[in-house]
Amino acid sequence: MSTRCLWLVALWVCGFSGCSGEAPTVGSSGGAGTASTASLGAEAPKTSRGTIGVSLLTFENPFFKVIADNIESEGKQHGYDAILLSADNDAAKQSNQVKDFIVSKVAAIVISPRDARSIVPAIQEANAAGIPVFTVDIPCLEPNVKIVSQVATDNLGGGREAAKAIIEALGSQGGKVAILGFATAQSCILRVKGFREVIDTHNESVTGKVTIVGEYEGGGARDRSAAAMKDILQSNDGLKAVFAINDPSALGARAALEQAGQADSVIIVGFDGQPEGKQAIKEGKIYADPIQFPDRMGVEVVKAIIAHSKGKEVPAETLIPTKLYKKIDADQDGSLK
Fold first, then answer.
1. What is the pTM of this model?
2. Looking at the structure, do residues 240 and 282 belong to the same domain, yes or no?
3. Residue 38 lies in a domain
4. What is the DSSP letter of 112?
5. Per-residue pLDDT tens for 172-230?
6. Closest C-alpha to 151, from 133, 139, 159
7. Which residues, other chains included, contact 278 with Cβ-Cβ below 8 Å and sequence gap of 6+?
8. Angle between the 247-259 and 275-282 helix axes, to the nearest 10 degrees?
9. How far apart are CA 330 and CA 333, in angstroms?
10. Do residues 161 and 274 share a domain?
11. 175-181 and 239-244 as β-strands: parallel, antiparallel, unpaired?
12. Model confidence over 303-333: pLDDT tens digits?
């Protein structure tokens, strides 16, 4: 080889190694890196663990947006990307979202089912593809599907807390109570179940009996709950209280009561503890809420995904207790107006 060729080879090597005498390094992106990155003390980029596909009931309810945001932020800290989708209360749309996750070969799927029965075929496809499925807030208890873990509020316990709040508010007089439910959401079914249990036990006492006049479908939405509340008022004279399974339902009930001129005569207990619900409690429009912690739910489901990916045993269910939130709490809440 000529002297000129040897000189060109030396120049080429020097250009890649920075004349440091070290071979080129390869970064996580597959491109060429340099040893100088480590010498500057910068942290090496984390290897991506893949993507978490998330399909939640609706983002119109801020509760689910908080869950989504915390899945994204917690996942990012541990090397996961996230696709965050709203099912918009549409079971068919949610099934298609899950199927798209399968095609994209995501690392894990998180869902809050719009309808547990309708989502079964899509979950079965994910099971067959070897993609772990987790549920958050709303479970899927249908047979022949494999759910690694469910992370949720202790909805049964929260319903019991709601009943205690209404019994307290009604006092020794008792009275008629209506329930604004959401019959297709398992979490809301559990809230109503816990509520009824405590009311039934309370009614074994001699005084202050609470009569449940019926459970009415509010769909977990403000407008639909307002319409249901109007029907309740027309068919039930002397109504004293309402248990609404979430804050949008409670706020819808309040709007209907205000329109009917009965806002001061009917007590409302909601559920969730969203900012708007807490503000209504401070203003005396809602008596109390068993509040949930959607931020913790998002974090816990990511922890379950990570543990499962490492072959660790994951609990089939993680329940996060509610906390009863009343006006005394709202008055001390610096986040409110």
1. 0.77
2. yes
3. no
4. -
5. 999 999 999 999 888 899 999 999 999 999 999 877 899 999 999 999 999 999 999 99
6. 139
7. 289, 291, 325, 330, 333, 335, 336
8. 40
9. 5
10. yes
11. parallel
12. 999 999 999 999 999 999 999 999 999 999 9
